[in-house]
Amino acid sequence: MRGHAITGALVLVAGLLVTAAPAANAGAATPFQRGTRYEAESATIVQGRVEKARRGYTGEGYVNGSNRAGSYVEWSVTAETAGPAKILIRYANTNRRNGRSDISVNGQTVAEDQRFPGTRWWRFWRTVSFRTTLVQGENTIRVTSTSRRGNPHLDHLEVRTLTAPPTETPPPTETPPPTETPPPSETPPPTECPTITPPVETPPAETPPAETPPGETPPGESQTPSLLGSPPVESSPPVETPPAETPPAETPPAETPPAETPPAETPPSETPPGETPPGETPPGETPPVETPPVESPTPPGECPPPGGDTEIPTAPGQPVCQDIGPTQLSLDWPVSTDNVEVTGYDIFDGGTTIAEATAPPVLIVGLTPATTYQLTVVAKDAAGNVSDSSPLVECATTEAEDTEPPSAPAELTQSNVTATTVDLAWQASTGDPVSYLVRDEAENVLATTGATSVTVTGLTCATPYTVHVVAEDAAGNTSEPSGTQTFTTAACAESVPQQAATLSEGWTIPWDIAWTPSGDYALVTQRDDFKIYKVTAEGQRTEVGAVPETVTTDGEGGLMGIAIPSTWNGTTDRDIYVMHTAAEGNRVARMSFDGTALTDYRTVLTGIRKNRSHNGGRIRFGPDGFLYVTTGDAQQPSLAQDPASLNGKILRITREGAAAPDNPSGTPVYSLGHRNPQGLAWDSAGRLWASELGNINWDELNLIEAGKNYGWPTCEGECTTEGMTNPKKTWTPDTASPSGMAIVSDTVYLAAMRGQRLWRIPLNGTDAGEASAYFQGVHGRLRAVEKVPNANTLWLSTTNGEGDRLLQVSLE
């Protein structure tokens, strides 16, 4: 089997849209009339997906387009007769800066760089409108992003007939935002949170959105192809009329709209234009008896779960692969159950989200031929609760029918050799190659590109290289290698890793390393047997005990991080700290260690969700004496943006488990918006740095600051979303998948699991310099990195699942 890779877009078929293919639209099948609505999820979607994470949408969801120029949604609408029409597009855009898109009708641009003004929060929906002329029969209306920020969230398009054509064609206009002072009868818009109406017809209990702290960033939108968020939950009787049933109020384009109030100043208690305020009584009906609103315990700016549902669905049953081909397979599984309703499933390959479905079976396409996939499934309900993972199934795609490889690339040349980079160029292959791989003599892949030239980065300084290039086609066929080029990289700076020596053998996934303050020995955790071992500087290994109440997740959980306070002495201070998986979730615990044996297990912090993958797990004492804890999103990305959740965060707590006194939120949360942070280390100025595993696109090195939001799931890698903090360095997951890290002399040493190398990144204040790689492919997957006290030496641990080792690396 070839190495594991995912190429192209993954397209799901299970009652869901197929990317770049039109889906059936019941509304589009009938002649349009005044107020005919066409849902975005039933349109053609290119570079985007259907989501349900933000309440207040109509139909079965809305479209979250990819953050890139050129992504679009295209509706097909049918006109009974040719003539003028008014088109309204309902959208949400949390950014206070305007979104920009081109709007075309039947291939002709009618609005270039059209503004979609910010709506302040995703849960506020607005419309833009324009007039156009439709032809008889089928018409197409497309909204195409013109910036790398992508389209806004698109809910639906509405077509309205006009009684007479306009005298001229004015540009598209926007419905004005809410005025600054709402009428007394208005209440927060129904798109803010789902409204549950009690039988006595009293107004619903809500947390007034006006209490949202200024500047607070709302939960973000996922940029992975896997998320189904929380759809609205229908009310108990009497049934409440959804806001979608009331068409947006028209703003004639020819008229001058009212003065626009900037979205940032719009009071959140207002009802957006075109929405039916839930506090108003329709004409002819008796208004309900009013009672004072009940204060909600939900944190400001957050919607409570529908009906207070916090029960997770049952785990899906054993998945089974069927109808396996070179690039696709069908996955089936016994369904989950829920106290309310299961609304969807996410499919994972290892810890990477690759698919979604509303129900089994699901057809997954865009896979790589002759490749083994490790597939699991999680279920989701309407409140956003996510189940535990299903059992794992391994499925291997078949060989491609096309077995003819491309021709070998020709005339390979080199130039501009530095300590860590080289420029290469070559002539193109024939046979429709889709990518070129630059490889060294051991066939380690140094770079991948679709072009015929590349700057290879991450090379090891003062090292001779002999490289070649191969071409690969869509079926995975690889050409013969090109000719070779030989060069030696420039001289090294200081603190460069030398050859790694084996210190200790016979391990199985040694997860973390922590030295005692004296530096006499280290404690090493072993993930899957839940044991802690004492290892001397010479490599002598002794078991000191197991951590009680630890369980496995049959994946990434178990016994993970370990930390020893700087005050530990084995007599008057015996506490050591661990992070492990327990029956109810992940925990931080402490045990007494006298230098010989572990005793006196005590729980320090609970309430951290677990799952097969994305458990975080690293813990370290900072220079301030507080304990820092990394937590993963537990395969539920929305938790990373939920300030009330401990998942998808870096936490900062006291030795007793309380929030550190000056934490920005008054809770254990120190930073949020993390997918699966792993490494923690401080530079000479006391700045905290952390490594983080991404999904499909980018792994990250982040400079962590109190209260900052690091973007997941809205951002993976760099993005321009307001309120999100960009990483200082990124890698593709095949070259990194980072875990532990250490900082020595203001240089980061970062262990890569999937990348099977040690990265070296010099720091310059708050900036990260050029990265270089060491030991690529030599020792397999690397997990832990820790500096040896009083020595210019690192300890590394491998994490290959068997025959693992502790390695010792000197820095010179």
Report on this structure.
The protein is mostly beta strands and 812 residues long. The chain is built from no helices and 52 strands. A five-stranded antiparallel beta sheet has the order 2-12-7-10-13, with no helix packed on it. It has a five-stranded antiparallel beta sheet with strand order 3-6-11-8-9, with no helix packed on it. Strand 16 and strand 17 form a beta hairpin.
Oligomer: single chain
Sheet with the most strands, sense and barrel status: 5 strands, antiparallel
Strand adjacency order, main sheet: 2-12-7-10-13
Helix content: under 10%
Number of helices: 0
| Structural Rg | 28 Å
Classification by helices and strands? mainly beta
Strand content: 35-45%
Low-confidence stretches: 1-34, 164-307
Euclidean distance between termini CA atoms: 39 Å
Secondary structure: elements and pairs:
Elements lengths: L11 E2 L22 E4 L4 E3 L1 E4 L10 E4 L6 E8 L3 E10 L6 E7 L2 E9 L9 E9 L2 E9 L7 E9 L11 E2 L145 E3 L5 E5 L9 E8 L2 E6 L4 E4 L6 E10 L11 E4 L13 E6 L6 E6 L5 E7 L5 E5 L3 E4 L7 E10 L11 E4 L8 E11 L2 E6 L5 E6 L4 E6 L4 E6 L12 E5 L11 E7 L4 E8 L4 E11 L10 E3 L5 E5 L17 E5 L15 E4 L4 E6 L5 E5 L6 E6 L24 E3 L6 E7 L2 E6 L4 E8 L2 E2 L3 E3 L7 E6 L5 E6 L5 E8 L1
Antiparallel strand pairs: 1-18, 2-12, 3-6, 4-5, 6-11, 7-10, 7-12, 8-9, 8-11, 10-13, 14-15, 15-18, 16-17, 16-19, 19-20, 21-22, 22-25, 23-24, 23-26, 26-27, 28-52, 29-30, 30-31, 31-32, 33-34, 34-35, 35-36, 37-38, 38-39, 39-40, 41-42, 42-43, 43-44, 45-46, 46-47, 47-48, 47-49, 50-51, 51-52
